[in-house]
Design a protein that fits this description.
2 domains, 3-stranded antiparallel β-sheet, mainly alpha, 8 helices, minor pseudopilin epsh fold, single chain, Mn/Fe_SOD_C, about 190 residues, about 50% helix, Helix Hairpins, 3 strands
Length: about 190
């Protein structure tokens, strides 16, 4: 079974002005596609060819893990964003954020601080632990919570290719704006699952 680049849940220009169509053309159309292509090359003719993406992530290491995790991370990231996003979470997710971070503002501050401290290339996640408490995790390179028995809720890509076209080296500005397109419905679904 060959892996395929998942269809974006919106048009490439739908996240403007926060993420441009040009950014999505490169990030989704070039980078994400390249991970899918390399993953297919690595699994072709091997016992991994019939595994799911999750199975490959939890059973592999090295280059195979990196390619599979990058395919998974990017697919998850696209769903964390929405042209109808922004605002604040509600319901049980909002209550959990308030319980663990004091307020939504306190959560955003903690999340952005972790993302700013994520040295080099990687991802910053909101995930749940086994006891359903929330945790903010920095992952280097392709690392993801799926590999560590955490349930991912939200992800922000802090690799430079995620924001360089629109923000150059201004990661802080990218992080300020990403909340304006955050898909809280998707995050809440992940939290409820």
């Amino acid at each position: 079974m060959a892996f395929e680049l998942p269809v974006l849940p919106y048009e490439k220009n739908a996240l403007e002005p926060y993420l441009s169509a040009e950014t999505l053309e490169y990030h989704y159309g070039k980078h994400h596609q390249a991970y899918v292509t390399r993953l297919n090359q690595l699994v072709e003719g091997t016992e991994d060819a019939d595994k799911s993406l999750g199975e490959i992530i939890t059973s592999s290491s090295g280059r195979l893990f990196n390619e599979a995790a990058q395919v998974w991370n990017h697919a998850f990231y696209w769903h964390c964003l929405s042209p109808k996003g922004g605002g604040r979470p509600s319901g049980a997710l909002a209550e959990a954020i308030d319980a663990d971070y004091g307020s939504f503002e306190g959560f955003k501050e903690a999340f952005n601080a972790m993302a700013m401290d994520n040295f080099g290339s990687g991802w910053t996640w909101l995930a749940t632990n086994g006891d359903n408490s929330l945790t903010i995790i920095n992952g280097d390179d392709a690392d993801c919570p799926v590999a560590h028995d955490h349930t991912p809720l939200l992800i922000v890509d802090v690799w430079e290719h995620a924001y360089y076209i629109d923000y150059r080296h201004a990661r802080r500005k990218y992080l300020e704006n990403i909340w304006k397109i955050m898909n809280w419905d998707f995050v809440a679904q992940n939290f409820a699952a």
